[in-house]
Amino acid sequence: MGFNEVGGMGFYVGILLGVMFILKWVLKSVNIWIYERGFGKTKRERLPPGDMGWPFVGNMWSFIRACNSGDPDSFISSFVHRFGSRSMYKLFMYGKPSIIVTTPEACRKIFFDDDAFKFTWPTSGLELIGKKSFLAISYEDHKRLRKLTAAPISGHEALFLYTQYIETKVVSALENWSQMGQIEFLTQLRKLTYQIIMYIFIGSESEDMMEVMEKEYTTLNYGLRAMAINIPGFVYHAALKARKNLVTMLQAIVSERRKKREATHGMSKSDMLDGLLDTEDENGKKLNDEEIIDTLIMYLNAGHESSAHLIMWSTIYLQSHPECFKIAKEEQEQIVKDMPSGQGKLTLNEFRKMKYLSKVIDETLRLVTFSFLTFREATKDAEIEGHFIPKGWRVLIWFRPIHHNPEIYPKPKEFNPSRWDDYVPKAGTFLPFGAGTRYCPGNELAKLEISIFLHHFLLNYKLERNNPTCPTIYLPHCRPKDMCLGSIIKVSK
């Protein structure tokens, strides 16, 4: 090949590379041109720095890739590397231009400013949980439903009533698992926590019905943070089918309950479903079936997924830190010794004495950060820390950089319950249940479930994992890839 031919080939390769560079620049600029064109120079300059990714998909590929890599923090790290350490960045996620927030100060301002930022969720989540659920209803409707559901979930009287039921189910489950040999620990925990939340909301249902519904919820949950692609083979498509099946089953339960209450003139009141059927606004308007079913779908999903995962991680951390396990076990042994003669069962009084166990749970909540992303939407143009946040843009609150900030929590990757000794986190630095008016109403119930489980586990059992170094998956929630495969071993006293 002659010199001219080589030079000519190099020329064309250079042109091709130039065209590809320009094409990439154009494609990476499409979202910016679409969503920033009407702001004017001053507002554009005050937007947070960032990258709005590719047309339509935005930064979703990068987000999913980071989560699948086993290092979800690399997603934010890429922004820090390119644009410097900032409190917020602009990006394009879940089909909308967005601002992602990563510092306590900025999070606090957004959480508590209901006038400028409303609660929202990606399209996939709204469709799957329901447009009449807490995720989508207005501020006033949310306040009304929250008031209705808060006491039956986390009120002192409710927790007192649930304690005995939870303990009975936990004791039975641990005994059964210890005889089953190898199990998927997380899968079994999901079944346990689902039975508990079903009892609280709907009362007793058949074991077969609960098992079918729990499987549908697992499918639905995988679609909550997926891209809203309703095509066979995609996670979101399967999740929509699961929702349809859940609506059918819950509609049958609601209809049957209405008939029962009509026959007894509304005298039968035993669970949350009865409360939802009774509630009415100041004009006497009651909830319709769609509103009740969407509320049930939301609570039944959140109420068992979070508890199951957090019980699993608490158990794993305690089992892998013998010094913490020893302290926690000694506390539980002392609690048993201090019980009044003949009591034999846990009460809220014992639950309140589990001081070290409470620190274990808080440390697990911090380290795992079960739901590491929540969503708001700007209802008007706003400004935070000198940055412009346009009306209609979504705000993503990313908890992990806060919970893993070494300036707030020294050696943040270490499991250290003692870091909570006499430590009260400042506002915006500990957000496992959110903050502001949308603070999770089920936090006390979740902690009660975890504490009762750990009490009996610490006293009588140990976990032997098949694959202690199993990779961790972060979507839809943080868990071992093998679902914590292992055995529950009963220990001799």
From TrEMBL:
<dbReference type="Pfam" id="PF00067">
    <property type="entry name" value="p450"/>
</dbReference>
<dbReference type="GO" id="GO:0010268">
    <property type="term" value="P:brassinosteroid homeostasis"/>
</dbReference>
<keyword id="KW-0349">Heme</keyword>
<dbReference type="GO" id="GO:0016132">
    <property type="term" value="P:brassinosteroid biosynthetic process"/>
</dbReference>
<feature type="binding site" description="axial binding residue">
    <location>
        <position position="440"/>
    </location>
    <ligand>
        <name>heme</name>
    </ligand>
</feature>
<keyword id="KW-0503">Monooxygenase</keyword>
<dbReference type="InterPro" id="IPR001128">
    <property type="entry name" value="Cyt_P450"/>
</dbReference>
<keyword id="KW-0472">Membrane</keyword>
<keyword id="KW-0560">Oxidoreductase</keyword>
<dbReference type="GO" id="GO:0016020">
    <property type="term" value="C:membrane"/>
</dbReference>
<keyword id="KW-0479">Metal-binding</keyword>
<dbReference type="InterPro" id="IPR017972">
    <property type="entry name" value="Cyt_P450_CS"/>
</dbReference>
<keyword id="KW-0408">Iron</keyword>
<dbReference type="GO" id="GO:0005506">
    <property type="term" value="F:iron ion binding"/>
</dbReference>
<comment type="pathway">
    <text>Hormone biosynthesis.</text>
</comment>
<protein>
    <recommendedName>
        <fullName>Ent-kaurenoic acid oxidase</fullName>
    </recommendedName>
</protein>
<dbReference type="GO" id="GO:0009686">
    <property type="term" value="P:gibberellin biosynthetic process"/>
</dbReference>
<dbReference type="GO" id="GO:0051777">
    <property type="term" value="F:ent-kaurenoic acid monooxygenase activity"/>
</dbReference>
<dbReference type="GO" id="GO:0016125">
    <property type="term" value="P:sterol metabolic process"/>
</dbReference>
<comment type="similarity">
    <text>Belongs to the cytochrome P450 family.</text>
</comment>
<dbReference type="GO" id="GO:0005783">
    <property type="term" value="C:endoplasmic reticulum"/>
</dbReference>
<keyword id="KW-1133">Transmembrane helix</keyword>
<dbReference type="InterPro" id="IPR002401">
    <property type="entry name" value="Cyt_P450_E_grp-I"/>
</dbReference>
<feature type="transmembrane region" description="Helical">
    <location>
        <begin position="6"/>
        <end position="27"/>
    </location>
</feature>
<comment type="pathway">
    <text>Plant hormone biosynthesis; gibberellin biosynthesis.</text>
</comment>
<dbReference type="InterPro" id="IPR036396">
    <property type="entry name" value="Cyt_P450_sf"/>
</dbReference>
<dbReference type="GO" id="GO:0020037">
    <property type="term" value="F:heme binding"/>
</dbReference>
<keyword id="KW-0812">Transmembrane</keyword>
<comment type="function">
    <text>Catalyzes three successive oxidations of ent-kaurenoic acid giving gibberellin 12 (GA12), a key step in gibberellins (GAs) biosynthesis. GAs, which are involved many processes, including stem elongation, play a central role in plant development.</text>
</comment>
